[in-house]
Amino acid sequence: MNKIKIKNFKKTLSKFITGVTVVCVNRNNKIYGKTINSFNALSLSPPLVLFSLGHKSSSIEEYSKSKYLSINILSNKQKILSNHFAKKNPSSLKINFFDGKNNTKMINNCIANLECRLFKKIKMGDHLLFICEVLYVNYNNKLKPLSYFNSKYN
Ligand SMILES: Cc1cc2nc3c(=O)[nH]c(=O)nc-3n(C[C@H](O)[C@H](O)[C@H](O)COP(=O)(O)O)c2cc1C
Fold first, then answer.
1. In testing the pocket of ligand 1, which one of 13, 31, 34 has its CB within 8 Å of the most ligand atoms?
2. Burial of 91: CB neighbours in 10 Å, binned 0-12, 13-18, 19+
3. Which residue in 17, 43, 120, 136 could disulfide with 149, CB within 3.0 to 4.6 Å?
4. How many CB atoms lie under 10 A from the CB of residue 89?
5. Structure pTM?
6. What pLDDT, in 10s, does the model give residues 37-94?
7. Annotated domain spans of the chain
8. Which atom in ligand 1 lies closest to the alpha carbon of residue 38?
């Protein structure tokens, strides 16, 4: 075993395969999106999920002030969206959204979409943990997921 350092910690975590989501908030009619793979299930009753966002994120204010948000689980045809929303200053890209019930914007053609209400925010280390209550869902049984492993898509 090797003593933990930032480099081997990151590399070790990259050995855990995940899906890829884009979490969106709509603030004053501007849509913010972030590529997030810290998404996870938390509770069935009440229906809760979680994700974390670095507190140095350029959009941390917008995320922490939003009451509602959308979590969009990407299909393997949406790598371009994952790259786009991982950029600090994304250039323009035509993205098709549909409306959620609470002024949220959901990305079209995802493997699944969750409309959520922010339930609790917890400061944890250098990230802010968002615990979200899921209000509405939809999913597509035919699409395949985008997966991320060893810092690469597969
Ligand atoms: C596959 C993938 C997953 C990511 N997951 C997270 C995550 O769970 N939490 C996070 O804070 N950043 C995550 N990021 C980084 C953000 O998408 C983004 O690059 C980062 O927040 C810096 O940009 P910003 O300052 O504009 O927010 C991920 C990036 C990629 C490519």
1. 34
2. exposed
3. 17
4. 5
5. 0.98
6. 999 999 999 999 999 999 999 999 999 999 999 999 999 999 999 999 999 988 889 9
7. 17-102+112-149
8. 8
